[in-house]
Structure formats: C-alpha cells, structure tokens
Specification:
heterodimer; A: alpha/beta; about 30% helix; B: alpha/beta; two-stranded antiparallel sheet; ETF_a/b_N (chain B); transport (chain B); Electron transfer flavoprotein subunit beta (chain B); electron transport (chain B); ETF_b (chain B)
C-alpha cells in the first residue's frame, strides 16, 4: 500500500513537472510571405516550434497581409496569428521590422523567437536578438530540448550541439531539416496590440529585381539540376534548362558558374548560397568543393556527371557518370 | 570623408579539411593553416577602394582573438588598412566567443574611434553564424546593409545592392552604417611584398575586451561537436542508359 502510493506520487510528480515545463514554453514565429503566399521556410519553422513545445504564435506583418493571415490560421499547431498591417513594412527593412518584433516580444513574453533561415530571417533576427541583448542561434537543424539545439559549423563538416544560456532564444531554422507543417488547424487571428510601426529614417527601400522563372523554387524543388564551371558558358546552361524542364526540376549552380556570369547569384548552391536537400540532385560539370557540398549533401540521391574521374563530387554521389556533359546531358534529356 | 572600421577574423583556411577533436568539444586548430576569413578580405578590399576613391579618410582594422589574430591584422594592413586594433580574447572565453560579444566590441570601438562605416564579412566560414553586422548595427542604432554586392556613395547616403533569395534588392542607408560584404562585392587584391614589409611598421594597438567594458561571458555551452554522417559510397555507372534506369528504379523519374 505504502510503496504503491509513493510510486504514484513519484510518477505524478515527474509527469506533472514535465507538463508545467512544457506550458512555460511559448514561441513567436516571424511569418515570411511573398506575393500573398506564406513561404515554405515559415512552415518548417512551425515544425521546429512544435518540437520545442508550448504555444505557437505567428506574427504576420507587412503592407498587405489579409490572405496570409488566413493561410497561417489553418496550419496545424498554430495557436494564434498576430497581425500588423502597415505600409511602413513594405520592403522588409530590418530597421522597421526589428522594433515591431521587440514590441511583440514585450507584449507576449515568449521564450522563443523563430524565423526561417532565409535572407530575410538572417538579416532581421540578429538585429532583434541584439535589441533584446541575447545571443542568436543561426540555422538550426534539430531541436533537442527547449534550450538545446543542433547546428552545422565549418560548411557542414562538423555538427555542434549547444545549450543556450539566454532567457529568450532567438533562432533561425534551416528549412530543409524540418518538414513543413501541414494544414489542419484553426488559430485565432488578432491584431497585435499597441503595434504602430513608424518608418525609420535610417534606411529606405528602393526596389528589387527578382529573377523570373517558371521552374519550381530551388529551396522546395524535388529535383534540382545544377551546373558548374564545366558548362563553359551561359549559352550552354540551356542544356540544363532543357533537362530540368523535362524533369520538372529547378536549376542551381556552383559558385564558379555564378562568378563566371553564366547564371545569376540567387541560383548559387553552397555554404554561402542556398542550402537545399531535394530528392534528386544532379550535379553537372561541378567538381564538388567543400563549399558546394555544404549546400547539397543532404540531398536524398546525388548524381554526378563529370569528365574528371578524380572529381571530389564522385565521393558523395550515389550514381556517377564519367562522361563529357555535352554528350551525356542531351542524351539523358532524349531518354526521359 | 568617412572613417571606416573593418572587422577581420582569423579562421581555419577555407581549403582545409577540418577534423573533429577526439574529446568532441571542438575541431582541431593546432598546427592547422589559418587565414583571414574570405568575406573579411572582401570587406577590407572594399574599404581600401573607398579610400582610393577618396570616399574614406582612414581604415582601422580590428580583430578579436588570441595573439595569432595579429597575423590577420597584418594582412589587412598589407592590403591597405592604416592601423589596427587587436582585441585580445584567449582561452575558454575565446572558445565560446560569439557574434554577441564581437558586435559589442565593434560597437564600442566604432564610437570610440568615431567611425562612419563599419564593414565586416557577411559570415565567418568557421561558425557560419551570419550575425555580427546585424547585431553591431542594432547596438549602435545605425542602419544596416547586409549581403552587399555593390556599395555607392550618394550624397550623405549609401546606395547598396543586396543579394537576397529571389534576386537583388536596392536600399539606401543613412550614414553612419554597418555593411556586410557578400562574395560578389569585389575581388580582393593580393598583398605585395613591399606592402607586407610596410605593414610591419603600421601601428597596432592591443586592448582587452575588459578595457572596452565588454563582458565575454559564455552565452552558450558547447555540449559536443561531431562529424556529420558519412554518405554511403555510391557507384560509377557505365553509360546514360544505366543512369536513367537506376533513377527509374528508385522512382526519381
């Protein structure tokens, strides 16, 4: 009798404590959106937040946000959608956005602030962290607990598990490491109280030139065909576009191809470009430098087409074809 | 004319294949080739070009770290920086030194030295954080121009072309400002032998984080550092037909 009841107390104590700890966690996620659509990076951040536990609020801010707020409210796991609609937020200037996130933080006293590790999240969250006097954590690939996270260092050649000592964890999340959260929720939508963003006089958004393409987005494409220095010219990249179109693939590039002017910068895959993990990655005329591998080595299947049998890309490829790409790529296109 | 502060970091050379320490607390750095973080070379180059265009009056290079950080500062001086400040951080504090601390140090020095522009690389290739510029700008309450691929001075402002996910973006920032250099900003010059010799005579001041009133207490605890999972060795296929049939087998096409 005695031992039974003491066991019960012990069990109740442990699980009760866990519940309380979980209840203390609360996350606010910066909802990133382009042209009225929520970005995939935010859906991955929501998945990461679920692993942290507790309530999940998503801040949807911008100069036009109605549709996006509705989309976010339907995502499973989201407790609340906080909205701020203001023309000041056009152009995503961190000088205007950071104070807004700080005011949301002051109102909600969150334990975690998350965003996708996109160029927007990377520009903004460290500024927010500094305003809160905490050390941000970049590009996490796993959540071990509410204060322990995993991230890659040295171009993905080492994996660090770290424990944050800060009271508020400010984190960017690697999209390819967390599957996107799916629909199936019904969160409440409310305007963020007391948020009246003012235009900072520090900076001004002039405009942007976005690369137009009908192909799938590099970050979320299932198949990516990528070219390097071996393509020799911008003209020759057409070979890859033709192959990609046949496969419904996105097209990426190595730094060498970007530097040589074959393709625009935003197609660069690697440590300092985009980090992707498609089902199938086809590297054409890419040697496979450490910096390039950092951006694609988590792809499910890697194919390399290169005429140099010693190219390091063959050390990570599942299927390697030692051949002249100018013959192999058109042949492959013809056989699909 | 603007006074420029350039932050440079000594990192393991980009071409080195790093090794994780047996105790799993970090990577092996002893006896390994180090050099200036490639993005910081680009930042130094941009500062020197600003001076050559008479947009900048003086360039001060700063590095935080152990005694060897001075080698990196000498490289910056040989590229054209006028003087250097070595902020000495050693031992366990250096192990957990983060952009959080470095940005406070840079902000303090920016005010002390009355600079108009802080230039740093967009990320260091060792910790891959990509935080220092943004945090420095926040602490100073200055504008920030991250991932810059072109910087032009227009009146009292800077017009900056930025590399963003979908393409390029143009912003105008008021001075003083913090800029982080992306790869495409410029092609850094090599330090010539005469300039390396001259750099030895340029002034280098040594201070500690404590002198600057910056606490370098750890904000993270490194629980462990491991090798990434190794990919299973693949196979070489003889021809395109085999490749296509393998991909079909796997359901990729």
């Amino acid at each position: 009798m005695f031992s039974r009841s003491s066991n019960l107390v012990k069990l109740g104590g442990v699980s009760g404590f866990k519940q309380i700890a979980a209840r203390f966690e609360s996350t606010i996620i910066l909802g990133e959106h382009v042209d009225g659509k929520l970005c995939a990076s935010t859906l991955s951040a929501i998945t990461a937040a679920k692993k942290i536990g507790g309530d999940i609020s998503v801040l949807v801010a911008g100069n036009k946000i109605g549709d996006v707020a509705q989309q976010v409210a339907k995502i499973s796991g989201v407790t609340k959608v906080l909205t701020v609609e203001n023309d000041v937020l056009k152009g995503s200037l961190p000088e205007n956005w950071a104070p807004l996130i700080v005011s949301a933080q002051n109102a909600g006293k969150y334990t975690h602030i998350l965003a996708g590790a996109s160029s927007f999240g990377k520009s903004l969250l460290p500024r927010v962290a500094a305003l809160l006097d905490v050390s941000p954590i970049s590009d996490i690939i796993a959540v071990k607990s509410a204060d322990t996270f995993v991230r890659q260092i040295y171009a993905g050649n080492a994996i660090m598990t770290l424990k944050s000592k800060d009271p508020v964890k400010v984190i960017t999340v690697r999209g390819t490491s967390f599957p996107p959260a799916e629909e199936g929720g019904s969160a409440s939508i409310e305007a963020l109280a007391g948020a009246s963003p003012e235009a900072s006089t520090l900076s001004e958004w002039v405009g942007q030139e976005l690369s137009k393409s009908d192909r799938p987005d590099l970050g979320s494409a299932k198949v990516v065909v990528s070219g390097g220095r071996g393509l020799k010219s911008a003209e020759n990249f057409k070979l890859l576009y033709t192959l990609a179109d046949k496969m419904g693939a996105a097209v990426g590039a190595s730094r060498a191809a970007v530097d040589a002017g074959f393709v625009p910068n935003d197609m660069q895959i690697g440590q300092t470009g985009k980090i992707i993990a498609p089902e199938l990655y086809i590297a054409v005329g890419i040697s496979g430098a450490i910096q390039h591998l950092a951006g694609m080595k988590d792809s499910k299947t890697i194919v390399a087409i290169n005429k140099d049998p010693e190219a390091p890309i063959f050390q990570v490829s599942d299927y390697g074809l030692v051949a002249d790409l100018f013959k192999a790529v058109p042949e492959m296109t013809g056989k699909l | 004319m603007a006074k420029v502060l350039v932050g440079v970091k000594r990192v393991i050379d980009y071409a080195v294949k790093i090794r994780v320490k047996p105790d799993k607390k970090g990577v092996v750095t002893d006896g390994v080739k180090h050099s200036m973080n490639p993005f910081d070379e680009i930042a130094v180059e941009e500062a020197v070009r600003m001076k050559e265009k008479k947009l900048a009056s003086e360039i001060i290079a700063v590095s935080c770290g152990p005694a060897q950080a001075q080698e990196t500062l000498r490289t910056a001086l040989a590229m054209g920086a006028d003087r250097a400040i070595h902020v000495e951080v050693t031992g366990p504090e250096y192990e957990t030194l983060q952009p959080f601390h470095v940005s406070k140090i840079l902000a303090k020095l920016a005010l002390e030295e009355k600079v108009d522009i802080v230039l740093v690389g967009k990320q260091a290739i060792d910790d891959d954080s990509n935080q220092t510029a943004q945090m420095t700008a926040a602490i100073l309450k200055w504008s920030q121009a991250t991932f810059a691929s072109k910087v032009e001075k227009t009146d009292g402002n800077l017009t900056v072309l930025r590399e963003i996910d979908g393409g390029l973006e143009t912003i105008k920032v008021k001075l003083p400002s913090v800029i982080s250099a992306d790869l495409r900003l410029n092609e850094p010059r090599y330090a010539t032998l005469p300039n390396i010799m001259k750099a030895k005579k340029k002034p280098m001041k040594k201070v500690t984080a404590k002198d600057l009133g910056v606490d370098t207490g750890a904000r993270i605890e490194i629980l462990n550092v491991e090798d990434p999972p190794v990919r299973q060795a693949g196979s070489i296929v003889p021809d395109v037909d085999t490749l296509v049939s393998k991909l079909k087998e796997k359901g990729h096409i």
